[in-house]
Every structure is written in structure tokens, then in C-alpha cells.
Structure to design on (158 residues):
């Protein structure tokens, strides 16, 4: 039988693979309690209904969103993952009060996420992706010239 750490790492690998294939029922099944805390924008999606809404909202602009695991490790009740987030801007993207029409441009940005588990359990209780939203916008060439991430936060399509 696999150790608890091995089972947790396998749960995270499965969770991430299911996100790529849009098997939302499968993703939900990897949770003890579905919860995402997006540390880039500061948004929290708590409970199955809100998490399914997050899936829907995040895949409209990037229906082919994927991930490629770079490194994965576990400590205590947490699994940490470094990965490439990939996708193509194929649908409308909401940024603040602005809707950016599809550009057809692809992105590939490096990210990290922590997956929290209840003590003794092998189901996820919270996923926390850590990223800077401007990384994706920069990769899509949607940031104004010279934008540094501070000051004017008006977005534009070049």
C-alpha cells in the first residue's frame, strides 16, 4: 500500500490532469471540501457551486488551459507544485470592468500552487495557486508599454 504522502502526491497529479481534460466531476472528487484561494487576484471560491463557477469563468477566455508539472513535493499536510500554466486566448477575457476580445495568442507562465490536506487524509481541502496576473497579460502582449505592475492599472489591447 502506498504511503499517505504518495497518495497525496498522486491525488494532486490526478487533480491537475483532470483540470486539463475538463473532467470537473473528477476534479471535485479529489476534494474533501472544494476550495480555491487564488492568491494573485485575491479571490476565494468555497464549496462545490463556487468552484464549478471558477472552472467555467477561467475556461471561457482559455478553453485549452493546461499545466505541465515541473516539480512536486510534500511536507506535513501540504503538497507543493511548480508548473507551467499554458493556454490560448480564444474567448472574451474580463479584466476589471474591461472585456478584452480574443487575441488568439498563446501563453506559458511559470506558477506554483499549494494543496492542503486534512490531517491523515488524502483528499484536498484547499488549492492555493500563487501567481502574478500580469504575467499572463504580458505573455499575451496586453500590457501597456512600460507597465511595471504598479501605478496605472488600465489594460489595453495592443
Amino acid at each position: 500500500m502506498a504511503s499517505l504522502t504518495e497518495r497525496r502526491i498522486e491525488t494532486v497529479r490526478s487533480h491537475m490532469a483532470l483540470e486539463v481534460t475538463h473532467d470537473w466531476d473528477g476534479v471535485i472528487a479529489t476534494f474533501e471540501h472544494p476550495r480555491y484561494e487564488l492568491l494573485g487576484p485575491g479571490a476565494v471560491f468555497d464549496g462545490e457551486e463556487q468552484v464549478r463557477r471558477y472552472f467555467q469563468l477561467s475556461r471561457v477566455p482559455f478553453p485549452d488551459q493546461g499545466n505541465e508539472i515541473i516539480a512536486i513535493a510534500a511536507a506535513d499536510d501540504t503538497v507543493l507544485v511548480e508548473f507551467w500554466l499554458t493556454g490560448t486566448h480564444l474567448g472574451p477575457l474580463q479584466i476589471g470592468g474591461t472585456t478584452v476580445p480574443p487575441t488568439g495568442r498563446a501563453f506559458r507562465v511559470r506558477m506554483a500552487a499549494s494543496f492542503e490536506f486534512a490531517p491523515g487524509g488524502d483528499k484536498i481541502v484547499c488549492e492555493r495557486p500563487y501567481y502574478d496576473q500580469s504575467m499572463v497579460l504580458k505573455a499575451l502582449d496586453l500590457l501597456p508599454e512600460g507597465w511595471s505592475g504598479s501605478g496605472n492599472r488600465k489594460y489595453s489591447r495592443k
